[in-house]
Specification:
seven-stranded mixed β-sheet; binds FE2/S2 (inorganic) cluster; binds flavin-adenine dinucleotide; Elongation Factor Tu (Ef-tu), domain 3; seven-stranded antiparallel β-sheet; Rossmann fold; single chain; 16 strands; alpha/beta
Length: 255
C-alpha cells in the first residue's frame, strides 16, 4: 500500500481529560483510503527533545471533511508537545503505515480496547458496521477517566464498559466482564488493543473457545518503515517487524 508524507493542518485539539486528547487534522490533498489498525508516524517539531517520529493509530477518518484524527495519551515529551498544538498548527505525518485487522468469518465480533488502546477500534467498528457485521465494543480502563469517548462507538455496535475500580461499568478487568463468561462463544472474531497483559489475557480467553483473535501491538518504534528492526516481534514464522508486518497480529502467530 502506498505511503504518503503530508503536512496536515490542526483543525481542533480536543482535550478529553488532563491525560488524553484527540487531535483532528486536515489533509492538504484528498485523503487516501485508510484501513482500521493502520497508524501514522508523527513528526513532533514543537519538542526539542523528541528526535524520532512517534507512532499513533489512526483513530478516525472523515473523508467528507478530509480529516483524520489521533487519540493520544500524554506519557512523555513528544505527546505533551502534541497536546499543546492548536488550530492552524502544522503536523507532518507519514501514513498510512502497517497492516490492518482482517474481517471476521461470522457476523458477530468483539472489539476490546484498554485505555488509549481503544484508538484503532473506532475505524474497525465503523467498517464492520458498514459491511453488515454486528460488533460489540468492550472498553476497559483503570478508572472512569480512562474510558475515552464511549459514545463514538454507539452508532456502530453495543458498548460495554469495565473499570478496575468500578467507577464506570462493571468492576474488574476486561476479561472479567460478563461478556467473557456468557457471550464469548457467540463471537466469530475478537480484536484487542491495549496494555500487553490485557491483550495476552484476551488472546487466552479467545483461544479457550477457539475464536480467532487479532491484537494490535504498540512496540516501541523508530523508523516505522522496516529499516531499524527495533520493533521486531517473535512469531511462529520467525521474527517480524511490528511496523511493516504488524501492528496487527493473530495471537496464534505470536510466541
Ligand atoms: C503502532 C502503534 C500505535 C500506537 N497508537 C497510539 C495511540 O493511538 N495513542 C497513543 O496515545 N499512543 C499510541 N502508541 C504509543 C505512542 O507511540 C507512545 O506513547 C509515544 O511514542 C510516546 O512518545 P513520548 O515522546 O510522549 O514519550 P517517550 O518520552 O518516548 O516515552 C515516555 C514513556 O512512555 C513509554 N512509552 C513510549 N512508547 C510506548 C509505547 N509504544 N507503549 C507503551 N509505552 C510507551 C516509555 O517507555 C516511557 O516510559 C502507539 C504505538 C505504536 C507502536
Ligand atoms: S520501527 Fe524500524 S523496523 Fe520497525
Amino acid at each position: 500500500m502506498k505511503k504518503f508524507i503530508h503536512d496536515f493542518v490542526v483543525s481542533r485539539n480536543h482535550h478529553i481529560t488532563h491525560d488524553y486528547f484527540a487531535i483532528y487534522l486536515k489533509c492538504p490533498v484528498p485523503l487516501p483510503s485508510i484501513l482500521p489498525g493502520q497508524f501514522a508516524e508523527v513528526l513532533v517539531s514543537n519538542s526539542t527533545t523528541t528526535y524520532l517520529r512517534r507512532p499513533f493509530s489512526i483513530y478516525d477518518v472523515d473523508y467528507e471533511k478530509n480529516e483524520l484524527s489521533l487519540l493520544i495519551k500524554k506519557v512523555g515529551d513528544g505527546t505533551a508537545a502534541l497536546s499543546k498544538l492548536s488550530e492552524g498548527d502544522i503536523l507532518n505525518l507519514v501514513y498510512p503505515l502497517g497492516n490492518s485487522f482482517s474481517m471476521p468469518a461470522g457476523e458477530k465480533a468483539l472489539l476490546v480496547g484498554g485505555g488509549v488502546g481503544i484508538a484503532p477500534m473506532l475505524l474497525l467498528a465503523k467498517l464492520l458496521h458498514a459491511k453488515g457485521y454486528k460488533p460489540d465494543v468492550l472498553i476497559g480502563g483503570r478508572t472512569a477517566g480512562d474510558i475515552l469517548e464511549p459514545e463514538k462507538y454507539k452508532p456502530y455496535g453495543e458498548v460495554f464498559i469495565t473499570t478496575d475500580d468500578g467507577s464506570a461499568g462493571e468492576k474488574g478487568m476486561v476479561t472479567q466482564h460478563s461478556l467473557f463468561a456468557g457471550k464469548i462463544k457467540t463471537y466469530s472474531a475478537v480484536y484487542a488493543c491495549g496494555p500487553d497483559p490485557m491483550m495476552k489475557a484476551v488472546g487466552r480467553a479467545a483461544a479457550l473457545h477457539d475464536i480467532p483473535c487479532e491484537i494490535s501491538l504498540e512496540n516501541t518504534m523508530a523508523c516505522g518503515i522496516g529499516a531499524c528492526l527495533c520493533c521486531v516481534v517473535e512469531t511462529v514464522e520467525g521474527n517480524k517487524t511490528t511496523c511493516m508486518e504488524g501492528p496487527v497480529f493473530d495471537t496464534r502467530m505470536l510466541k
